[in-house]
Amino acid sequence: MTAPTADPRLKGRSVKRIAFSEATIARRVRELGAEITAAYPDGDLLVLGLLKGSFVFLADLVRQIERPLQVDFLVASSYGDAMVSSGKVNLVYDPETKLEGKHILLVEDIVDSGRTLQQLLVLLGKRQPRSLEICALLHKHIATELHHPTKFLGFDAPNEFLVGYGLDHAEDFRHVPYVASLQ
Ligand code: IMP
Ligand code: MG
Q1: What share of the chain is helix, strand, coil (3-state, %, to 5)?
Q2: 3 in a domain, yes or no?
Q3: What pTM was computed for the model?
Q4: CA 69 from chain center: how many Å?
Q5: What is the CATH number of the domain that holds 111?
């Protein structure tokens, strides 16, 4: 394997710490797939990926779920505190698939404040899904605004800024195959 500090993907930056290696992530994603397979014995399952951060995780995850399912995505735009004090989330891309009567599994890269997910749960909950649950790769456990358990969770994340496996810094590093903090 390429020495991570010399990884050409990193635009000359170097890794401070690899939080989760490729092998560690792959192992956990297999386990999560088995958990999800066992949790949904019947009914239509729609796996809804929150773009862009979830795209790598979602692609690996759905291939480990051994039951019928469909995939769609949504794009949420959040306005920061500087613009709108309520931090309201809008859907920039709304899933085309109907949610009514289906098991909806919302897939997120990382739960930080939890604000985005909380607002999405309220919004999607109005469309009468049969169930609505969250699967997140990472959780910083500092979410004060999320009033719903993360039913399926990859890892507890350290409270530092992480990149890779879908997570970006200013749109860079999403393709890095491990999760790391940078110098
Ligand atoms: P929340 O609404 O505060 O929970 O924000 C969650 C979103 O913030 C995630 O979907 C990520 O896009 C981004 N985010 C939070 N923490 C990190 C991080 O450590 N690295 C990269 N993106 C992060
Ligand atoms: Mg981001």
Answers
A1: 25, 30, 45
A2: no
A3: 0.92
A4: 18
A5: 3.40.50.2020
What are the structure tokens assigned to 157, written together? 């994340």
Q: Using one digit for the tens of pLDDT, what is the confidence trace for 85-115?
A: 456 788 888 888 899 999 999 999 999 989 8
17 strand-pairing partners: 181
Query: Rounded to an integer, what distance in angstroms lies between the CA atom of residue 133 and that of residue 59?
Result: 18
* Ligand 1 proximity of 110 Cβ (cutoff 6 Å): yes
* pLDDT tens string 149-162: 999 999 999 999 99
| Residue ID of nearest Cα to ligand 1 atom 16 | 112
Structural domain of 58: 8-78+85-182
Q: Which residue is catalytic, options 44, 60, 109, 112? A: 112
Atom of ligand 1 nearest to the CA of 112: 4
**1 in a structural domain:** no
